[in-house]
Amino acid sequence: MNRKLEGQVAQVSGSGRGIGREIALKLASEGARVVINDLDQAPAEQTVADIVANGGQAVACILLIRPFEVFNAQRCCRSAALAPTCSLRQSQQCRG
């Protein structure tokens, strides 16, 4: 297993299902600690559970990320005690 992202934190929007989920699982498999962002709590928590079950670290952050809400998303990262800063990757178009 390639752990090239060990020590890094990634936030993936729309990662409760679909492509966003697959991106989050891949990042976790490479060692990243992942903030799972989705509008729906149940799929986000399932993605977190799957990552943790495979030995990774993840936390769910339920909020809509619009361009002007990036700061709030990063604050969510910090409040989850994952890291002082986070990278943001949007896997789907923002709604709202």
TrEMBL record:
Domain of life of the organism encoding this protein: Bacteria
Pfam family of the protein (one): adh_short
Gene3D superfamilies xrefs: NAD(P)-binding Rossmann-like Domain (3.40.50.720)
Signal peptide: none
Annotated protein name in UniProt: Uncharacterized protein
Taxonomic source organism: Limnohabitans planktonicus II-D5
Lineage of source species: Bacteria, Pseudomonadati, Pseudomonadota, Betaproteobacteria, Burkholderiales
